[in-house]
């Protein structure tokens, strides 16, 4: 799909992987709606790229309906939806202070998995009603999981299981939407230099990067965005989970 002139939604678009994606889509001519919980961050990116900022809690139905309505009013129904919103609070199932709280586990799953499903169900209702392009496509969803979905570490029980759910959502959604020409894909990133990672000491970041076989460094969000653009542009990619991790396999 050529994104020039097409409407796009990027969740978590105010920083990190989402910001890089929003900028790449806009640079290619897409009309981008930047969804983020942080109004200031969403507004900053939207202003830079000539898009529209939409404050959105992806885990909340009403908030997401309002954000999608605002984006649709500004740009029309989205043909490209990239989901990068997520949280990753570390906690053992049983730690020094006792069992993992059920509230925190539920929050992680609600944001990382239910949130992705929530945006998909609402955006798909509009996308499926669009006229097909010359390629036969009506649109594409790209959801973000993590290599933790396959190799979760101690302290990542909530995060890893939520991301495994995102992986599991990919194929049934792709199969359901296929007759209408809507593709669904998933990216599983390794360790990237996002705001969360940037908050760690420089020595820790270097140590993490050194564990990556090649290139031995943290990923650049622009590299994630480049993969997004390749996925969107290649109409034969569908129903797949793509790792972008420099061949890293997390150890237990």
UniProtKB/TrEMBL annotation:
<dbReference type="InterPro" id="IPR036291">
    <property type="entry name" value="NAD(P)-bd_dom_sf"/>
</dbReference>
<dbReference type="InterPro" id="IPR002347">
    <property type="entry name" value="SDR_fam"/>
</dbReference>
<dbReference type="GO" id="GO:0016491">
    <property type="term" value="F:oxidoreductase activity"/>
</dbReference>
<keyword id="KW-0560">Oxidoreductase</keyword>
<dbReference type="Pfam" id="PF00106">
    <property type="entry name" value="adh_short"/>
</dbReference>
<comment type="similarity">
    <text>Belongs to the short-chain dehydrogenases/reductases (SDR) family.</text>
</comment>
<dbReference type="InterPro" id="IPR020904">
    <property type="entry name" value="Sc_DH/Rdtase_CS"/>
</dbReference>
<protein>
    <submittedName>
        <fullName>Enzyme</fullName>
        <ecNumber>1.-.-.-</ecNumber>
    </submittedName>
</protein>
């Amino acid at each position: 799909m050529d994104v020039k002139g097409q409407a796009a939604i990027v969740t978590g678009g105010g920083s990190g992987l989402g910001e890089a994606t929003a900028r790449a889509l806009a640079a290619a001519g897409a009309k981008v709606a930047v969804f983020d919980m942080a109004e200031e961050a969403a507004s900053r990116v939207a202003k830079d790229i000539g898009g529209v900022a939409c404050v959105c809690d992806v885990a909340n139905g009403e908030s997401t309906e309002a954000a999608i309505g605002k984006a649709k009013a500004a740009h029309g129904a989205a043909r490209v939806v990239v989901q990068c919103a997520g949280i990753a609070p570390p906690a053992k199932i049983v730690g020094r202070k006792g069992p993992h709280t059920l509230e925190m586990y539920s929050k992680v799953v609600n944001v990382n998995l239910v949130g992705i499903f929530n945006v998909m169900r609402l955006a798909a209702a509009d996308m499926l009603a669009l006229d097909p392009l010359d390629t036969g496509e009506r649109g594409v969803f790209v959801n973000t999981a993590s290599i933790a979905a396959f190799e979760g570490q101690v302290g990542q029980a909530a995060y890893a299981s939520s991301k495994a759910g995102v992986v599991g959502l990919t194929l049934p959604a792709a199969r359901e939407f296929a007759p209408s020409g809507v593709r669904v894909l998933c990216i599983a990133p390794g360790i990237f230099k996002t705001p969360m990672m940037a908050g760690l000491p420089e020595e820790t970041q270097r140590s993490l990067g050194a564990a990556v076989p090649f290139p031995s460094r943290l990923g650049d969000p622009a590299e994630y965005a480049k993969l997004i653009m390749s996925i969107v542009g290649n109409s034969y990619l569908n129903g797949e989970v793509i790792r972008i991790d420099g061949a890293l396999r997390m150890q237990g």
